[in-house]
Specification:
The complex is a heterodimer. By secondary structure, chain A is α+β, with helices and mostly antiparallel strands. In chain A, the strands form seven sheets. In chain A, strands 1, 2, 3, 28, 29, 30, 31, 32, 33 and 34 form a ten-stranded antiparallel β-sheet that branches. In chain A, strands 4, 5, 25, 26 and 27 form a five-stranded antiparallel β-sheet that branches. Chain B is built from 17 helices and seven strands. Classes of the chains: A alpha+beta, B mainly alpha.
Chain lengths: 626, 525
């Protein structure tokens, strides 16, 4: 629907730009265009039509890419658009178009200055960008204080490393699972080098977790078992696998207060258990809330705190009860006085006395008058502390094969004992808990497997691939998950290969060490105001050791000196991330960009060219006369 | 049965007073409090500023209508909660903006304000907030669900309210002289005497005239007066019409100059108060675009002696200043310290100001384009090649393209300086490039004779939509990328409506193009 001004045919186009030229130059250009096929090609490549086509498609494609990025991820946008071969081709075509359109005007005249400078600037800029993309890299580096100097940078480029089944040689290929994510119905296939076996990747999870599993293993001498614990809170059961006589896998902790152990023979139980109790009085003063007068008549401190006060002078007094766990309530004092409150924590609370104006007379507390000038109350507490006796479950092989005997100990005075078989559910004697013996193997070992996390929450986990090997006859070996940063051996009927998956590492020609890191805050807040890191660069080959400071917006570069920095041959380190929980750690972004100088020169030329085109040119057709 | 007066909510609400049935009481609306200095959000500011920010944060506006009390200003509301906290927990003053969240929490659909008491007893709200906090603290790049993010905002409002009730927020007592500049201030026990507080503040390490200037700035509303004077100027110029000798023309021109001066004064005050250039958020960038459009209009109209520039800039200036005046919840006018990445950076300042100035030039071009198209409708003819309005439009596009190109490259300079790389196809960068390319296409098409003055006008409006996307859309619609400190929520309806209206106008302009063409294409002689 282009109903605007009449279209000018391409062959007439170049005339447009020379209408004010002297006849001879214009004729010369016309003549070379007719007689030379090379010049004809140059004119075709430098045509405004091609320029418009390239610009319009580029604009549209970039717009689509930003939505791709918003909908998926920046890696997807990069893979399909910005980093794809045809986008590069487009940019190269644009470069050609710019060169050719400048060439069509040769020999240049004074009023072409701005035009030529602008186009040269864009060409140089694009050249710098292509060089930077080909030879430079961007990655991240985690540094910890006290850790050995780092030399490897993690690039945001996932790779797959495979081992040749025949020679054991390693091969590596870029592999981004976020782009065309492998699915069972859309697997990605890779032939293994020097073999007819194919690697089939048919699943991907962005979050995997590691689980231990009991595997029957005839070569093992040790029995193993799997238990399933169901807690009183109705959450999902906890699965545990144990083997006998293993340094790490005979014993497991179920939280800080409960443990399970697999032993050769059950010990004798005989642990007396009583929950500690307390009886306590607290004198609470409204005027000195921080210093209650505590007196324990027996047992340990209760951990309860009380605050007495009123919102405004003249208001009725209120008492705030604060439990050891931080929860609490506010009551009107008159409601509480001389009544026993049965707190749900099992503690009995009695506000026994109230003195509106407390004074000490002959060593005894008493009230002087009824005006609440120095109010105080006496609170009496009685209860038991939360049970802190660790619960224990000890297991051993039973008297007959296929049976297991157990001893469960907890705060209850009587231990639980018994003999169970696989499939049985029993009580370990812990309040509200039930245990199921899922399996009992005579010879077993524990294996760590990677599985996709089922929880859709933000629990940490690493991306993982689901892979297997497929023989030419169509049979597949066992499939398994391989988490990012790990490797695993896959097998098929006739081959085995170790497959690794992880981000690409780039080795620096020097090392970097974190000496200190600190995070100053904004006045009166927790907001970070800056991030400051001191590092030391070391280049053993040049016997060079250089300390450097890094701050927000103030990166450090290595090697030092003007020449590497100006030419872009240096490596630049900027503050990129921090861990609020661990202030000894910082994440730096590392950049190496040999196209740097070209980019700057090009940018400068481009801006200067636009300026001279718009404001310095005395040409009636590009600058509207005022 | 002993009943607790108040159960603690897990969300740090322990500052709330015991629930009572007593009605909330209004404190005296005492303007003597205005210049009381207070430490808040990393800055020492006047109480009036604090009250405005707090009220806007809690209620969404700087005034709130309360049943049986009527309309209450920010100062009176904040003072009332501070001095008589009782009963305020029952007043509907907390904003729950997101309709989806209201549905999720089973709140009344048709109201937006709810009482702190009602909100603080909703377990679902606490649950959603916990989710949002978890996903945030886990440090992963995982996105927070919009519902959880909205719930977190509401919970922040509850906490803010609790900090008012407990008095915690009112940090008006400076630390003893000699302590460090960033030492926390403390809050007084109620009741207190204002005079005593002011006396105590004399030892504080801050500059009192700055506080007074900020109060004057808040009370005077320079940006409001700027749009009013532009509105009157536009009316005068419209009445005068084509008659350049009309008496109202000079009045209109002078009013527009006055408006520009007011904008300048407002900026100067903001810069001095905050101690930083106005480059942080959508509010400031809208002001800056209005300023850019007004500045170029005034320069061009002076240089080329015609008032059409002023007329073309007036809708831009008025629309953007009115929007920033009326939407304080979306466009936050508060003067906050910069996030670290934006701090103490010369390149950033230049980069942002150049880019937004170019937006101003393009906005002015868009205004001119509308006038040009409407004139073509009225005269039923296309503009000729040497039409003065087309030349005006061309000038605006030129300065815009130059500034945008410089701005994009300065963005590269700054990105290189701050993040280490020049260009990374970040959505904001990409959209700035798209906008630049759109204008480059527009100028090349005109150069190639593909379109004339009318096409240039239509293209200016179409290309401005890409500016709108780069400016607003990336932050508020796409919501991804490194420019996240500018991300926000709200206003999508208005901006979407504006874009739709412009698209409809464009469609109309293209379909009903006047046919009596005096072609304006550059043709070979």
């Amino acid at each position: 629907m282009r109903k605007v001004a009449p279209l000018v045919l391409p062959q007439d186009l170049s005339i447009l730009f020379f209408m004010s030229l002297p006849e001879s130059r214009e004729e010369k250009i016309q003549a070379r265009r007719i007689h030379s096929p090379i010049w004809r090609a140059v004119h075709a490549l430098g045509s405004l039509h091609l320029a418009m086509l390239l610009l319009i498609t580029l604009t549209g494609v970039c717009a689509v890419a930003t939505f791709l990025e918003s909908g998926f991820s920046s890696r997807v946008a990069r893979a399909y658009v910005y980093g794809s071969p045809w986008f590069n081709l487009w940019l190269i075509l644009l470069c050609l178009n710019l060169i050719c359109s400048a060439a069509t005007r040769w020999p240049w005249q004074r009023h072409h200055t701005g035009f030529v400078i602008t186009h040269a600037g864009i060409i140089i800029l694009l050249g710098g960008a292509l060089l930077g993309r080909a030879r430079g890299f961007e990655g991240s580096l985690d540094l910890s204080r006290g850790a050995p100097p780092a030399t490897q940078v993690l690039l945001d480029r996932p790779r797959l490393t495979v081992e040749s089944p025949a020679t054991g040689q390693l091969f590596s290929t870029p592999f981004d699972p976020e782009v065309r994510t492998p699915r069972p119905d859309r697997p990605r296939l890779l032939p293994l080098p020097d073999s007819d076996v194919q690697l089939v990747i048919d699943g991907y999870t962005s979050r995997s977790i590691e689980k231990t599993e009991l595997t029957p293993d005839p070569s093992s001498l040790n029995p193993g078992l799997t238990l399933e614990f169901t807690g009183p809170f109705g959450s999902e059961p906890i699965r545990l696998s144990l083997v006998l006589n293993s340094a790490s896998d005979s014993h497991a902790e179920l939280g800080p207060q409960a443990s399970v152990e697999f032993v050769a023979t059950l010990p004798k139980s005989g642990r007396p258990s009583t929950a500690p109790t307390f009886r306590e009085t607290q004198m609470v003063l409204a005027n000195d809330p921080a210093q209650p007068i505590l007196h324990n008549t027996s047992g340990q401190p209760s951990g309860f705190r009380f605050f007495l006060g009123s919102r405004k002078s003249g208001d009725p007094l209120e008492l705030e009860i604060l439990r050891p766990d931080g929860s609490g309530e506010i009551y009107r004092l008159s409601d509480l006085l001389n009544r026993t409150l049965d707190d749900f924590s099992g503690t009995k609370i009695l506000v026994a006395r109230y003195w509106p104006n407390l004074i000490l007379k002959d060593g005894q507390p008493t009230s002087e008058g009824d005006s609440p000038d120095n109010p105080a109350v006496l609170v009496m507490l009685e209860g038991s502390l939360p049970d802190t006796t660790p619960s224990r479950l000890t297991l051993a092989l039973g008297p007959t094969p296929g049976t297991l005997s157990f001893l469960g100990e907890s705060s209850s005075p009587k231990p639980a004992t018994g003999i169970v078989r696989a499939g049985d559910t029993f009580s370990p004697g812990w309040k509200g808990w039930a245990v199921k013996l899922v399996s009992l193997e005579k010879n077993a070992r524990i294996e760590t497997v990677t599985l996709p996390s089922e929880k859709a929450d933000t629990s940490p986990g690493r991306p993982a691939l689901h892979a297997r090997l497929r023989s030419p006859d169509g049979t597949s070996g066992p499939a398994r998950w391989i988490a990012s940063g790990t490797s695993a051996v896959l097998t098929s009927s006739n081959a085995a290969s170790r497959i690794g998956f992880g981000l690409e590492l780039q080795t620096l020609p020097f090392s970097i060490r974190l000496d200190s890191f600190d995070v100053p805050r904004d006045p009166g807040t927790d907001e970070p105001a800056n991030f400051r890191a001191s590092v030391t660069f070391a280049d053993p080959k040049k016997n060079l050791e250089v300390p450097a400071q890094l701050e927000m917006n103030q990166p450090a570069t290595f090697p030092p000196g003007l020449f590497p920095q100006v030419t872009g041959l240096s490596y630049k380190f900027s503050q990129a991330g921090w861990d609020p929980q661990n202030l000894n750690r910082t994440t730096l972004q590392v950049l190496h960009d040999p196209g740097w100088l070209l980019k700057w020169t090009g940018s400068l030329l481009m801006v200067a060219g636009i300026f001279s085109m718009f404001y310095l040119r005395r040409d009636p057709h590009s600058q509207p006369a005022s | 049965m002993i009943r607790p007066l108040f159960l603690f909510f897990t969300l740090a609400l322990s500052g709330l007073p015991a629930f009572s049935q007593e009605p909330a009481q209004l404190a005296e609306n005492d303007s003597k409090f205005d210049t009381l200095a207070i430490q808040h959000r990393g800055r020492i500011k006047p109480f009036l500023s604090f009250a405005q920010e707090i009220t806007t944060s809690i209620c969404g506006r700087s005034t709130v209508s309360i049943p049986k009390m009527g309309k209450i200003g920010c100062r009176q509301l904040t003072l009332s909660i501070w001095l008589n906290p009782k009963g305020w927990e029952n007043q509907p003053i907390l904003l729950v903006e997101d309709p989806a969240l209201r549905r999720e929490l089973n709140l009344q659909e048709n109201s937006r304000l709810f009482s702190p008491r009602q909100l603080s007893t909703l377990p679902k709200l606490a649950e959603l907030t916990r989710q949002a906090e978890l996903s945030r603290s886990s440090g992963t790049q995982a996105e927070t669900l919009p519902l959880a993010a909205a719930a977190q905002t509401v919970s922040l409002r509850i906490r803010l309210f609790a900090s008012l009730v407990s008095g915690d927020a009112f940090r008006v007592i400076p630390p003893p002289s000699g302590s460090s500049v960033d030492a926390p201030w403390s809050f007084p026990r109620v009741p207190f005497s204002l005079d005593q507080l002011l006396e105590q503040q004399k030892s504080g390490n801050f500059f009192r005239p700055k506080i007074q200037l900020e109060v004057a700035y808040l009370k005077f509303h320079p940006f409001r007066w700027a749009w009013v004077s532009w509105l009157v100027a536009a009316i005068f110029l419209l009445i005068a019409g084509q008659d350049s000798k009309h008496r109202l023309v000079s009045w209109g021109r002078n009013l527009a100059y006055l408006g520009l001066l007011l904008l300048l004064a407002g900026f100067a005050a903001r810069i001095w108060i905050a101690g930083r250039p106005p480059v942080t958020n959508m509010y400031e960038s809208i002001l800056w675009v209005a300023f850019g459009a007004a500045l170029f209009a005034v320069i061009f109209s002076k240089r080329h002696r015609c008032t059409i520039y002023l007329l073309a800039a007036s809708p831009v200036v008025i629309l953007s200043l009115v929007a920033s005046d009326l939407q304080p919840a979306v466009l936050d006018p508060s003067l906050n310290p910069l996030v670290p990445v934006l701090r103490s950076n010369f390149w950033l300042t230049i980069h942002v100001l150049t880019i937004t100035l170019s937006y101003g030039a393009f906005a002015l071009a868009t205004g001119l384009a509308h006038f040009l198209i409407i004139r073509s409708f009225r005269t039923h003819s296309l503009p000729s090649a040497d039409d003065s309005w087309v030349l005006h439009l061309y000038r605006c596009l030129q300065i815009g393209v130059l500034l945008l190109a410089i701005g994009v490259i300065l963005g590269g300079v700054w990105a290189n300086y701050s993040w280490g790389r020049f260009w990374d196809w970040d959505p904001k960068e990409t959209w700035a490039l798209i906008a630049l390319l759109a204008y480059v296409i527009l100028l090349h098409g005109r150069l190639g004779g593909w379109w004339g003055g009318y096409g240039l006008a239509v293209g200016s409006i179409a290309s401005f939509l890409t500016i709108l996307m780069a400016w607003y859309g990336v932050n508020f619609v796409l919501g991804k990328g490194l420019h996240s400190y500018g991300f926000g929520n709200g206003g999508q309806l208005y901006v979407g409506l504006f874009a739709l209206l412009e698209i409809a106008f464009l469609a109309f302009a293209l379909l009903r193009r006047p046919v009596t063409a005096t072609s304006s294409a550059l043709k070979p002689n």
